[in-house]
Design a protein that fits this description.
The complex is a heterodimer of chains A (338) and B (147). With 338 residues, chain A is an alpha+beta fold. In chain A, 64% of the residues lie in helices and 12% in strands. Chain B has a single domain (5-139), classed as Response regulator (Rossmann fold). Chain B contains 5 helices and 5 strands; from the N terminus they run βαβαβαβαβα. Chain B has helices spanning 13-25, 38-46, 74-83, 101-109, 122-139; strands at residues 5-9, 31-35, 62-65, 92-96, 114-117. In chain B, helix 1 (13-25) crosses helix 5 and helix 2 runs parallel beside helix 3 (74-83). The relative contact order of chain B is 0.19. The chains are: A alpha+beta (338), B alpha/beta (147). At the A-B interface, helix 2 and helix 3 of A face helix 1 and helix 5 of B.
Chain lengths: 338, 147
């Protein structure tokens, strides 16, 4: 443009000398100027295009930048989460280690207590029984070997000594049995309680062949239980039923299960001496007896043993009775299902 | 073959007296040697210690072995008897106050021939001793080459 203006000025100066050349020159100059203008416009467009492209690229860049920032933010959040998780894990580990230590201590204490109990019962088995055997043995030997110098009263005294020793022996046996029941490993298998019940009754009948008891045992009383412990339960419950029907004319004993219960509720029922229902909860305590030894002998440990076995199986035991009208003992050998 | 003898390993003098009384009352007149602890029992069997130089060291026909003994306990006595070539076939009856399951298991594992709990009542005790004496002295046939 500046070039065109200076060219026009030059042409005007020259035009004073040659007017026709002057017009041509002006036209040329104008042509040149318009060409230059077109070029300028093209350049402008190109620049505009470049600027447009740059703006688009910048937008993309900004977008990319935002995305990158987002990713970084996300990454940061993830990192924080991981760090928190690590912290949690560490504290969980600490917690767990503490719990494990506590468990180990408790287990060790339980094992020590168990060992002590075992040593105690072992020593009871040996050391308490030995002097008893001497007491019972020599009082009987005195009776047998020297009856010629013993009068009736001396004989009776000796009998008391012997019977007391015998009774204490049974106590020791029952207590040992109770502690064994607590310690013994529980091995569940399918057990036919009907069959065990029949064997128990057979033994009771053999020991007292003169007793006439009407016994009913329901067939197929299947349970998942430890066999030897189930035998202890039935020996005690049927033994009690046998004992407490000892003064009942037309004694009846029944072993069965209540219908439709899950887990099954087994029961031993008798029509013997029974007990006062007020004392039902006392029955299962160690040494609890509701009858005097003169009425019915016993150590008062049998039902405690039954209770412990039933509890170890996750079951429950209960007693129902009325004085002079018999008793019913119910038990389950499995946990109640929710 | 010399007379059959019983080795009674028993630390309680009272039990010893009741046991020997039961044997005699039941007509068992065989000689009874009593060892009062585990060491004495082993000394007798192997003719050592106070029994060193025991001539013609006969083995007992049966050993009645208590478990709870001073010095060397019954199960250890049993282990050593079974470990020795001279005595490994001697019949051994564990006669003990305990009726502990683990004693029974270990006793049999170590090679006891029988395990009998001492009953508290004298009648039952006497009957147990009578049957033991009868069985091991009269009916049982020992391994050849033993007394």
């Amino acid at each position: 443009m500046i070039d065109a203006a200076s060219s026009v000025a030059e042409a005007l100066d020259a035009g004073e000398a040659d007017p026709r050349g002057y017009a041509r020159a002006i036209l040329n100059i104008l042509e040149d100027a318009s060409f230059e203008r077109a070029q300028l416009e093209a350049t402008q467009r190109a620049v505009m295009n470049i600027l447009d492209d740059a703006a688009a690229e910048r937008a993309v860049l900004a977008e990319t930048q935002r995305a990158a920032v987002n990713i970084l933010e996300d990454f940061d959040a993830e990192k924080k989460k991981v760090e928190q998780a690590n912290v949690d894990l560490r504290s969980e580990n600490t917690e767990r280690a503490r719990a494990e230590r506590a468990l180990r201590r408790a287990t060790a204490a339980a094992e020590a207590a168990n060992k002590e109990l075992e040593a105690f019962s072992y020593s009871v088995a040996h050391d308490l029984r030995a002097p008893l055997r001497s007491i019972a043995g020599f009082s009987q030997a005195l009776q047998e070997d020297h009856s010629d110098i013993l009068d009736e009263e001396a004989t009776r005294f000796l009998r008391h000594i012997r019977e007391a020793a015998q009774q204490m022996g049974e106590l020791i046996d029952d207590l040992l049995n109770l502690s064994r029941v607590t310690r013994a490993e529980l091995r569940r298998e399918n057990v036919d309680l009907s069959e065990i019940g029949r064997a128990v009754i057979r033994r009771l009948q053999e020991a007292e062949p003169d007793r006439a008891v009407h016994v009913t045992i329901a067939p197929g009383l299947d349970a998942s239980a430890d066999r030897s412990l189930a035998e202890v339960v039935l020996t005690n419950l049927l033994g009690n039923a046998w004992k407490f029907t000892g003064k009942t004319p037309q004694a009846e004993i029944e072993l069965g299960a209540e219908l439709g219960e899950d887990p099954p509720v087994f029961f031993v029922r008798d029509n013997g001496a029974g007990f006062d229902q007020r004392y039902a909860d006392k029955l299962f305590g160690v040494f609890q007896r509701l009858h005097t030894a003169a009425e019915f002998e016993g150590t008062g440990i049998g039902l405690a043993t039954v209770q412990r076995i039933v509890l170890r199986h996750g079951g429950r035991a209960s007693a129902e009775g009325a004085l002079g009208r018999g008793a019913i003992f119910r038990f389950t050998l499995d946990e109640a299902r929710p | 073959m010399s007379e059959k003898l019983i080795l009674l390993v028993e630390d309680s003098e009272r039990d010893e007296e009741l046991e020997i009384r039961a044997l005699r009352k039941n007509g068992i007149r065989n000689e009874v040697v009593v060892a009062h602890d585990g060491q004495e029992a082993l000394d007798y069997l192997f003719a050592e210690g106070s029994y060193a130089g025991r001539v013609n060291a006969e083995l007992p026909t049966v050993v009645l072995l208590d478990l709870k003994l001073p010095k060397i306990d019954g199960l250890d006595v049993l282990r050593r008897i079974r470990a020795d070539e001279r005595t490994k076939l001697v019949p051994i009856v564990i006669l003990t106050s305990s009726n502990e399951e683990r004693d029974r298991i270990e006793g049999y594992e170590l090679g006891a021939n029988s395990f009998v709990g001492k009953p508290i009542g004298l009648t039952e005790f006497s009957e147990a001793v009578r049957q033991l004496g009868l069985y091991w002295l009269m009916f049982n046939q020992p391994a050849p080459g033993r007394s």
